[in-house]
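Exercise 7. Predict the joint structure of the components listed below.
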Amino acid sequence: ETGVTQSPTHLIKTRGQQVTLRCSSQSGHNTVSWYQQALGQGPQFIFQYYREEENGRGNFPPRFSGLQFPNYSSELNVNALELDDSALYLCASSLSGGAHGELFFGEGSRLTVL
Amino acid sequence: ILNVEQSPQSLHVQEGDSTNFTCSFPSSNFYALHWYRWETAKSPEALFVMTLNGDEKKKGRISATLNTKEGYSYLYIKGSQPEDSATYLCAFHSNYQLIWGAGTKLIIKP
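Solution:
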């Protein structure tokens, strides 16, 4: 087990709704990154937070937003849900956001948008 | 657009046989190459983080090589066991983000 926990594990929403996904980092890790994985594809980088500041963002629209809290846990918020947002959302924590640090993943939150 | 390709997409291997698969990535702006194993219903688990051209890393029966000049990495599994069944993902670290391949799904036949 990695010590990274995500909630909820599964959820169903309808188009236009908003969703919040949560992630608790492994103890001592100050960096959290979020990924979207659609069926049959590799994970796509959404954004990364380091010590409560966003310090990197992938090619996702502004309706994907996040927060990192003082205890380094994190939230991913998605507004105005679209059908294509249906995917597995993975959170990963690391000791730093650098290239050499391995990521510790949670088991993901599976979002279905109807 | 930066792209990471993994081949083959899936692979069936007899228990006890050795196997290998490939990760291809851009040869410019290289920072690191990551390999992860992802078993069904679990979370991805780091195998290797490789940074230097010519790097070879080993963990038990699994090893990996890296060629940053030509943009490829090989993952080898020696004497496959049923517990090796998983999807193996590679990711290329460019600047501040990891760019992932779609994975190679390995199925070990007893």
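Discussion. The first strand of chain A starts at residue 5 and ends at 7.
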